[in-house]
Design a protein that fits this description.
Number of helices: 14
Bound molecules: ligand MV4
Structural class: alpha+beta
Oligomer: single chain
Strand order of the largest sheet: 3-2-1-4-5
Radius of gyration: 22 Å
Largest sheet: 5 strands, parallel
Number of strands: 24
């Protein structure tokens, strides 16, 4: 097992990883920026090193500073968390060169899955259903013939992208050249890479992803789905498991497909295979995330296992336990992301001092957070300040438990999206499970009306 792990991240996930390490008797090193010195991850790690100023390019994305901190403290592994350097093939390769284990898959897997067009082609060759589309990137020469072959509407996506940047929906031949130029420019500005590929546009799909774990002995296990359809501007805000949209037969097929994806690239560690599910219950591979994800707790709650502990053990060459293949989801889990944003003012970020903070408690209620009363939310980072996860007997029980826990959650001094979550959970279509990716666009938030049903 590793003796000392450096956590190259901040916020709730850094704290989450520190807890997993403590339970495994692994020493921990936190790195923090100048504005994060009072954050709980820096407090609760065995050692903490300042790696630079608030600007993440100079701290949490500063590879030389992080590697120096690992060398100075004799860390034998680095956990990158999510975001920041978690899917940087360059960072993973530098860790390996410095003889520091990278708690993530190898450089080749990160690069393959990081290029969404290459990832799709790799997965298609493994016999997993992928969204119909171009085999490769497109240009102005071939885009018309490929789009006509697939049939409109089509969607243009950035090869280096993921998460909506550089994405354009195109309804007719007349719009495609301009959409291509726009997508390419946006992609170049965002990712330094203007490669664009093309897909059939799936009308009102659901986003369902499968968690997998893979050890270094060839064992790969599919750990069920998370329903992630409730997104605002391509940011997930509420996730749940199981999904109401799939039955046991489809669940097994999607799990098997996710394992096939992992097998075809000799995957190691924790990963997530994202699928779109269309209104006829056809599922298609969209992309694979080669990191632990924000929403991993909903899987942990329905399965009763610690994904980060198992992720770390996989990279320390432990075998996945035999019982893991027989795990069945129990009950229903929901996660609400608590963002410091004002839902009454176009989700404007709301940094500042938390003057009062009281977390909900009780049976099967979990709060993952790095903040506390008196903490100042910096304006330099992502606005997520906490995750509230509940586990209920069934979906209705979990929704009621979440509503009650949100009611108990007191955060004063800044705005949060807690009232927005309450209205979602009271929405008729949310309650019946009849929603698709257009849910949030069509959702009408009423300021000050969080306890009324719509
Ligand atoms: C799509 C799609 C329809 N057809 N691809 C990809 C990135 C993700 N954030 C949004 N993506 C979509 N890709 C095809 N071929 C629709 C979406 C989409 C979406 C997907 C999941 C959850 C919310 C969404 C909101 C708008 C569009």
């Amino acid at each position: 097992m590793f003796k000392k792990v450096l956590i190259a991240n901040r916020g709730e996930i850094a704290l989450r990883i520190i807890r997993a390490c403590k339970e495994l008797n692994i020493q921990t090193v936190a790195v923090y920026s100048e504005c994060d010195d009072l954050s709980l991850h820096a407090t609760f790690a065995d050692e903490a090193i300042c790696i630079g100023p608030a600007d993440s390019r100079k701290s949490y994305l500063n590879i030389p500073a992080i590697i120096s901190a690992a060398e100075l403290t004799n860390a034998d592994a680095i956990h990158p968390g999510y975001g920041f350097l978690s899917e940087s093939a360059e960072f993973a390769s530098i860790c390996i060169d410095q003889n520091i284990a990278f708690i993530g898959p190898n450089t080749k897997i990160i690069s393959t899955m990081g290029n969404k067009s290459i990832a799709k082609e790799t997965v298609r060759n493994a016999g997993v259903p992928v969204i119909p589309g171009s085999k490769d990137i497109v240009d102005l020469e071939n885009i018309h013939s490929i789009a006509n072959e697939i049939g409109y509407p089509v969607i243009l996506k950035a090869s280096a992208g993921g998460g909506g940047k550089g994405m354009r929906i195109v309804y007719s031949q007349e719009e495609i050249n301009k959409a291509y130029e726009d997508a390419k420019l946006e992609s170049e500005l965002s990712f330094n890479n203007g490669d664009i590929y093309l897909e059939k546009y799936i009308h009102k799909p659901r986003h369902i992803e499968i968690q997998i774990l893979a050890d270094t002995h060839g064992n790969i296990i599919g750990l069920g789905e998370r329903e992630c359809t409730i997104q605002r501007r391509h940011q997930k805000i509420l996730e749940e498991s199981p999904s109401v949209a799939i039955n046991d037969a489809l669940r097994k097929q999607m799990n098997d497909s996710a394992v096939d994806v992992a097998r075809t690239c000799n995957y190691v560690g924790a990963g997530t295979v994202e699928f779109l599910l269309d209104s006829n219950n056809n599922y298609y591979f969209m992309e694979m995330n080669t990191r632990i994800q924000v929403e991993h707790p909903v899987t942990e709650m329905v399965l009763g296992i610690d994904l980060i502990k198992h992720q770390i053990m996989c990279h320390a060459n432990h075998k996945l336990p035999g019982w893991m293949v027989n795990l069945k989801p129990r009950g229903h889990a929901i996660e609400c992301r608590i963002n410091a944003e004002d839902p009454g003012n176009n989700f404007m970020p709301s940094p500042g001092l938390i003057s009062s903070f009281h977390m909900p408690g009780g049976m099967n209620i979990r709060v993952d957070t790095h903040v506390y009363s008196g903490y100042k939310v910096p304006s330099n980072y992502d606005s997520m300040i906490a995750k509230l996860i509940v586990h209920g007997l069934d979906r209705e029980d979990a929704i009621n438990k979440m509503l009650s826990a949100l009611d108990e959650f007191v955060i004063e001094g800044i705005n949060t999206i807690i009232p927005y979550h309450k209205q979602i959970l009271n929405d008729k279509n949310f309650k019946t499970g009849s929603f698709d990716t257009s849910f949030i666009e069509n959702f009408n938030y009423i300021i000050g009306n969080e306890n009324e049903s719509n």
